[in-house]
Amino acid sequence: MSEQPQPESNPQARLRKTVFVGFAGTITLGMCLAGWYLGGRVFAAEQHVIRLLLPPPPSDPAPASAQTVKAKPIWSPVDPRPGESYLQLAAMGPLATKEYLQDLAGKGIHPLIAPGPTEGIYRILMGPYANTTALEKARQALESAGAKPMVRTY
Length: 154
Prior knowledge:
Number of domains: 2
CATH architecture of the largest domain: 2-Layer Sandwich
Number of strands: 5
Number of helices: 3
Radius of gyration: 31 Å
Strand order of the largest sheet: 1-3-4-2-5
CATH class of the largest domain: Alpha Beta
């Protein structure tokens, strides 16, 4: 007579095997989903890279031809000197800075951009102001336009 394989008679061994297989299947499925999600995020990030490039400081104006029309930039770079007072509108990274500058330009506000406290952070400034009277007048005008500036003295 031939012997047929006997099913495991130990219920604890069967339970352990079932739990192990279920756990392994769950981990495998989770890793597959994580790989799919992260791969999609990396692919999407590569397509939507936006870089904010600061233009060089203004130099001597070159003679303009009659056909050349330059669009006024919505912001200018500045390197504040010690003792100068500015109104700081915000400090943010490049993506948010670009959107914020476009919003300000729509309101007719053309700020200056200064380096921030860390690399990749830019300060959006108005000024410099010679005295507190001019600074307060500008602050009121900015607040009426919807901005909430703070005084920054370098």
